[in-house]
Amino acid sequence: MTEEIIIAGFGGQGVLSMGKILAYSGVMQNQEVSWFPSYGPEMRGGTANVTVIVSDNRISSPILNQYDTAIILNQQSLDKFESCVKPGGVLLYDPNGIANPPTRKDIKIYKVEGTEEATKMGNAKTFNMIVLGGFLKIKPIVKMENVQKGLEKSLPERHHKLIPLNLQAIKKGMEVVEEVK
Questions:
Q1: Which residues 6+ apart lie within 8 Å of 61 measured at CB?
Q2: What CA–CA distance (Å, rounded) separates 89 from 82?
C-alpha cells in the first residue's frame, strides 16, 4: 500500500500540521513516510501545501506531480491541484471559500464541512482535524490508535491537553464527510 497525498490551502489553516500528524501516524504504524512542505514567505494567509506519502515500501522520491488524494482547503489550491489527482483518485474539499467546486468525472469527490463543524464545536482550530477525519473515513490508511500516538508525537507537551478535543474533531469529520455525486 502506498498513498500519495497533497494537502493544500492557506497558511494558518493547519495544512502543514495535518500532514505532520498523518506522517507521524504512519511512523507509529511502522510505515515508510515522507513529509514535504511548501509554503510562501507570507506563511499566514499565503498558500501552503504539503506532500505526504505513506507506504509499506521504501519511498523513492518525495516530489510528485500526480497524487492519489488531494485534500483542498481553498479555491486557489483547487484550481492548482484538481488536475493533479490521478484518474480514479480522491479529491476531498471543504466547501467554505470554494466558489467553483471540482468538476472532474474520473475521480471520486468528497466534501467535509470542516469550517462549519469547527464553529459548532466552538473551536476554529479543530478545523484541520475535522478534515483529517473525513480523509481517514474515506481512506483509513492509519489506525486511530496510531493517530493518537501521532498527535502525541507532533504536538508539544504543553498542548497534550488538547489531544481529546482533536480526537473528537477527527471523529466528527468521519461522521460528516459525504460523497459529491
A1: none
A2: 10
Measure the CA–CA gap between 82 and 92, rounded to whole angstroms: 10
Write out pLDDT tens, residues 36-60: 998 776 555 668 999 999 999 999 9
C-alpha cell at 66: 500526480
Please enumerate, as own/partner, the contacts of 24-27 that have beta carbons within 8 Å and a separation of 24 or more: 24/149, 24/150, 24/151, 24/153, 24/154, 25/142, 25/146, 25/147, 25/149, 25/150, 26/54, 26/141, 26/142, 26/146, 26/150, 27/150, 27/153
- Grid coordinates given for 36: 514535504
pTM: 0.94
The verdict on domain 2-179 having CATH code 3.40.920.10 is yes
Own/partner contacts of 35-38, CB < 8 Å, gap of 24 or more, are: 35/62, 36/62, 36/63
As a whole number of angstroms, the distance between CA 139 and CA 97 comes to 24
CA–CA distances in Å: residue 131 to residues 30, 61, 87 = 24, 26, 22
Confidence label for 77 from pLDDT (cuts 50, 70 and 90):
very high
Helix 163-176 crosses helix 114-121 at what angle (to 10 degrees)?
130
